[in-house]
Design brief:
About 40% of the residues lie in helices and about 25% in strands. The chain is an alpha/beta fold.
Amino acid sequence: MLRQAKCAESPVIEFVDVSKTYAAVPAVVDLSVRVAGNEFFVLIGPSGCGKTTTLNMLNRLVEPSAGRIRIGAEDIRDVDPAILRRRIGYVFQEAGLFPHMTVAENIGVTPRLLNWSRAEVADRVKELLALVRLDTDGFRDRLPRELSGGQRQRVALARALAARPHIMLLDEPFGALDPLTRDEVADDYRAIHDELGLTTVMVTHDMTEALLLADRVGVMRTGALLQVASPAELVSRPADEFVARMIETPMRRAARLSAALGHA
């Protein structure tokens, strides 16, 4: 079932006329969008369309060339980047775990930077491993090389959640996983998002994934935001031919699969 949009009238995140240019080449152009508290918002588009740049501007890994970005009532330019990043969880496609650290040490990185006590960090590691469905005794002391791809990504999710952020940024977080693991981890994250009342902004190039996970989807092309809508509205009323073609791809594949199974 496709999800209905959540109201974004009282945004926790707001982009206002944001642009980013690299060496005179525009990457993001006049982007304005609001993301509500507890919303799962997905940016989708082809490679190079500006979606990851948009994500990275939100925690100041990239600085805008123009425009403003606010979290709540606060302009993020007024917040020290290191402090801002500790308030926001970030998950990369390749997990990005520190190879020389154990699972527990990876998860505890940000709490240690925030001067949590050893007992607080240990309790939080145990709590998070349970949340991402990894057995504490079986995984706490393992190194990343001893984990499967899905297990590494679950640890990456736990690490991003360690300091109890309200906002999570996900950059193609499930793209490197095999299809079965990808669906399992994605479904588990959506459940975590709902359980913890998070606000999530995720980047993907997979329209099926966007439609299944998002409350609202923003479609980007060549730096511009073409349409923002719920999955149901996006399917029923695409804004232009490009959005329609993106929608048609998973629909066409689903129809082909149905036909193939019907003739099996």
